[in-house]
Amino acid sequence: MRVVRVHESYHRAPKGLTAKDEDRLATAAVASLRAQGYHVACDADFDTDDRPASYPPSSSSVAHLASRVREATTTDETAAALTELTAPHDGVLTAIEEILTATADFYDGLGEPSDPHIARRLRHLADEVLRTIRTDLSDTRNQLADRHAPHPGRSTCAQEVPANERERSAVCACPPPPRTLPAPPPPVAVGLRR
């Protein structure tokens, strides 16, 4: 059971469990935390090699697209990530449209006076706002896919040092990325002083 307080949050076992159920719950908690990659120090009674299957939340796959764009070194790599977002049949934006439409359908049958307005608003988001986002991102994706160019400020370097280098702290053999000069400040209007 999750407990949330002003300056802390933690989990505790529900009341009324038998000692055997408490041990089983503690062992399962250790297994779950270790499956997520946490180091867990515990009594030998709760130590386990079990690793239950863990499924990342759907949002992590969308966040992964963002990290792919951040790490992309070519326009093709970025276009591939945007393709997953904008694909017409199984893209992320199509799934969001389905959620908005399903929620609007749900509101249509609730019967409160404000429900039809909320349903119309959700359909507007799906039909107009999301369509604009999809169109702009699809155009961006297509422009990037047509370029077939490396990004001038990103390197495909694997940070490997030359084989003949004895020092592990040596810098990789790749040339440094080109420096971008800051944009000059806008011109200042000059006028007569009084």
Could you walk me through the main structural features you see in this protein, from its secondary elements to its overall organization?
The protein is mainly alpha-helical and 194 residues long. Helix content is 48%, strand content 3%. The chain is built from 5 helices and 2 strands; from the N terminus they run ββααααα. It has helices at 19-35, 58-71, 75-86, 92-108, 115-147, and strands at 2-4, 9-11. The chain has a two-stranded antiparallel sheet. β1 and β2 (9-11) form a beta hairpin. α2 packs antiparallel against α3 and α4 packs antiparallel against α5. The longest helix has 33 residues, at 115-147. The protein is extended. The mean pLDDT is 80.
Low-confidence stretches: none
Question: Got a strand count?
Answer: 2
- Per DSSP, the total helix count is 5
Strand content: under 5%
Mean residue pLDDT: 80
Fraction of residues in helix = 40-55%
What distance separates the N and C termini?
74 Å
Main pleated sheet: 2 strands, antiparallel
Please give the order of strands in the largest beta sheet: 1-2
Q: What is the rounded Rg?
A: 27 Å
Q: What's the overall geometry?
A: extended
Q: What is the N-to-C succession of helices and strands?
A: EEHHHHH
What class would the helix/strand composition place it in? Answer: mainly alpha
